[in-house]
Design goal:
Elements (H helix, E strand, L loop, with lengths): L11 E8 L4 E7 L6 E7 L3 E3 L5 E3 L2 H11 L7 H17 L4 E3 H15 L1 H11 L5 H12 L5 H9 L6
Parallel strand pairs: 4-6
Antiparallel strand pairs: 1-2, 2-3, 4-5
Helix pairs in contact: 1-2, 1-4, 2-3, 3-4, 4-5
């Protein structure tokens, strides 16, 4: 670690403490050359591998922006979105991997979003899972209701008058 004051390549750790929610370490360092002190923050890196194969650092902001679009017009606050992004990051970090596919990040978003708002969940899932027909929506709604996957079409038939069937 270079000293930010004199650019000396050496420094001594004076103090270490947990920062944020325990996911980072704040270190006070002292430069043996100029004697000045400075702080550093160390975090574990978590990379998201995109479809193109390019890796980029995990970003709660990207999770929030993606979910915010699905939540437009819904009673979901910015605090709710921040909590969802934190839950997604904790789930991914708990898996113990340093690199994760972008697809896995999307899957990690689905469960907490379903708990937060079911309409937003359907919007997100329809894009993320590439729904192609009404049957895809019906199957997702049936899952939300706890019904078997193919019961959605049968139950809608049962509610229609006999003349309309």
């Amino acid at each position: 670690m270079y000293c930010p004051f004199c650019r000396n390549a050496d420094s001594r750790v004076v103090d270490s403490r947990l920062a944020d929610d325990g996911s980072a370490i704040r270190r006070r360092r002292q430069c043996p050359e100029c004697g000045r002190r400075f702080s550093t923050v160390e975090t574990t890196s978590l990379s998201v591998i995109k479809r193109s194969g390019v890796g980029e650092p995990f970003s709660r902001g990207k999770v929030i922006n993606g979910v915010r679009k699905a939540c437009q017009g819904r009673p979901v606050s910015e605090d709710d979105l921040a909590m969802l992004a934190q839950e997604v990051e904790e789930t991914i970090r708990a898996s113990g991997v340093a690199e994760i596919d972008a697809h896995e990040v999307g899957l990690a978003i689905l469960e907490p979003l379903q708990k937060l708002d079911q309409v937003a969940y359907l919007r997100f899932a329809s894009v993320y899972q590439a729904f192609e027909s009404l049957e895809d929506f019906e199957a997702a709604i049936a899952e939300l209701r706890g019904a078997p996957r193919h019961a959605g079409a049968e139950s809608s038939d049962a509610r229609r008058p006999a003349a309309a069937r």
